[in-house]
Every structure is written in C-alpha cells, then in structure tokens.
Amino acid sequence: MEKKKITIKELAKILGISVSTVSKSLNDSYEISEKTKLKVQKAAKKYNYKPNRLAVNLKSGKTKNIGVIIPNILNTFFTRVLYGIERIAASEDYNIITCFSRESYQKEVANIELLSNGSVDGLIVAIAEESQIKDDFEHFKEAKADGIPMVMFDRVTDAVHCDKVVVDDFNNAFNTTKHLINLNCKRIALVSTIDLLSVGKLRTEGHKKAIENAFNKYDEKLVIKSNVDNVLQETISLLNNEKIDGIFAIDEDASLAAIKAVKIKGYQIPNDISIIGYANEKIAENLTPTLTTVNQHGITIGKTAAKLLIDRLKNEKNEVVTKIIETNIDQRSSTKKLKTLF
C-alpha cells in the first residue's frame, strides 16, 4: 500500500521543531546544524514527506520548467538536441516541457501561447518551416516583450534579439564539397529536401561556392531541390540523365534517397559515386555501405542551448550571444579514404 504523504507542518510536529527549521534543513541551509539536517532528512524519508513544488515555485516566482519547441520529433537531429537539453536541465534541477510545431506556423504560435502563460521560465526553440517561409516571427517577439528569456538553435532569425546556438552551415557545406573534390570527384550533385529552410539555403550556397572555386562554373542541372515524397524519383532521374561521381545530400531524407537511388541504378559506392550526407551515427553505421556524414553534434547543441538559457535565467543582464558549434566529417565507407582532410 502506498504511504500517505504528510505535510511540512505534520513533519515539524513529529520532530518537535519549527516548520522553518524543517524547511531550512531540507534546503541545506547553513543556519542549521548538520545533526539537525540529518535528523530532518531521515524523518522526511521515513514519513514520505515531499515538498509541494507548486507552493515552492509560487513563493520563488520560478517554475523550474523550460519550454522546448522543436519542428519534428521524427528528425533524429532534433531528438539528439532534445537529449542534450534534458541532460543539462536535469543537472540544474529543471524540468522540460516539450512541444512539437510539426513545421506549422499556427501550431508554433499555439505552442508559444501555451508556454508563455507562466508555465515555464524560458524557451528553447527551432523555428518551424512555415514560419520561415512566411517570414513571420511576431509570436517570438511578443514572448520576448513579455519578458520570457529565449534561446534559438539551428533554425534561427536575426529578427528576434535573443541568444542563439548554430553551426556554420555555409562553411561546413563548403568544406564538405571540398572534401569530395579532394577525392577527385568532378561531377558533384547536391540533393536537398530542405531548400525552404535557412539552413538548407546556407548549405546550398556553401556547396555552390566550393564548386565555383574549383571548376569556375556551377551546373544547376546537378542540383535537386525536392520534397520527401519525390526526392528518390528525382535523384534516379538525375542519374539517368547526368554523369555523376559524387553526391552531397544536405539533409537526412536526401541522404537516404541518394544511397537508395544509386543502388537502384546499379552503381558501386564509393567506386563509382561517393556520397556524403547528414544522419545520426546509428543510422549512418547501419546503412550499407556505411554513410560518411557531416556531424552536427546535436547533443552538444542541446547542452549549449540549455546552459545559455539557464545562465540567462540566473543573470538577465548578460549580453546576447551566438554560439557556433564546430562540425566535422565522420568518414565511413560511402567515400574513399582521404589521408589529409581539408
């Protein structure tokens, strides 16, 4: 049978001490002796006393909750970011309340309204695809105006003045394309299902710059900007019509489609076509062949975002900062070995 919970007043009466002494003992106050603290803590455990967190939060004016809004839980990058956020939040005695925008502007607005009603102390968000397409970020600005600290990650906007955690998408795409060029790839296709997102545009521009630097021209026929439903067929069509020796797939769906399309066409990876894409470690290592990937360090992004927000909650006077997380290439079987990386 579950033990009945007792109140702090009942615990104080059992111990024959004041409510204030019990409270201070449980909060490890320097005003209370170690002997009394130990006595109170043992009694609290014995009689199943649990502090009323709501009452504590109301008294302190803090909820100890962090709101997290991510666009897509099926995207393993966001899952890893969420894991990183939770690790730091838990270590600082914060809970996280997670909402999913499902790439919808209206859903994102509703999430912001829900979390801005006093249920969280601050927000960590990645902007939904529809919001970026609409170029409408008023809901974030309103939350900021209401005094809610905010950290944006991955998908961010300069229109909102807040802390941000990003990777340098332009330069990591530039360097990834350069890596393929150093493998002697001369006809490098780009495959994307995220062209409507800021990160997709930056990766595409980085790729283009690397191609132009190496070959003094850029062939738009080697660029696929598609959606999840059509990307496989469009990649197969590209292979039917163009000679390709390298593919840079700039998101997870594009990466999986690229490998499948090359196999369907009967090409050997990496002897005929080298492929670099985006996917988490478990997916990349369980593909055949294993996929060389750009490692965005999603867990590190999540940890960094959580640290930034908690620091902001502790000291609101801190200057707004943007943290840039370095990426690297995890080389696997879908590319030939290169002794010296760029």
Protein topology:
Elements: H1 8-15, H2 19-26, H3 34-46, H4 53-60, E1 65-70, H5 76-91, E2 95-100, H6 105-115, E3 122-125, H7 129-134, H8 138-145, E4 150-153, E5 163-167, H9 169-182, E6 188-192, H10 198-215, E7 223-225, H11 231-241, E8 246-249, H12 252-264, E9 274-277, H13 281-286, E10 292-295, H14 298-314, E11 322-325, E12 328-330
Helix pairs in contact: 1-2, 2-3, 5-14, 9-10, 11-12
What does this structure look like?
By secondary structure, the chain is α/β, with parallel strands linked by helices. The chain folds into 3 domains: 8-51, no CATH class; 63-167 and 298-326, Response regulator (Rossmann fold, 3-Layer(aba) Sandwich), CATH 3.40.50.2300; 169-296, Response regulator (Rossmann fold, 3-Layer(aba) Sandwich). Helices cover 46% and strands 15% of the residues. It has helices at residues 8-15, 19-26, 34-46, 53-60, 76-91, 105-115, 129-134, 138-145, 169-182, 198-215, 231-241, 252-264, 281-286, 298-314, and strands at 65-70, 95-100, 122-125, 150-153, 163-167, 188-192, 223-225, 246-249, 274-277, 292-295, 322-325, 328-330. The strands form 2 sheets. It has a 6-stranded parallel beta sheet with strand order 2-1-3-4-5-11, sandwiched between helices. It has a 6-stranded mixed beta sheet with strand order 7-6-8-9-10-12, sandwiched between helices. Strand 8, helix 12 (252-264) and strand 9 (274-277) form a beta-alpha-beta unit. Helix 1 (8-15) crosses helix 2, helix 5 (76-91) packs parallel to helix 14 and helix 11 (231-241) crosses helix 12. It is elongated and about 85 Å long.
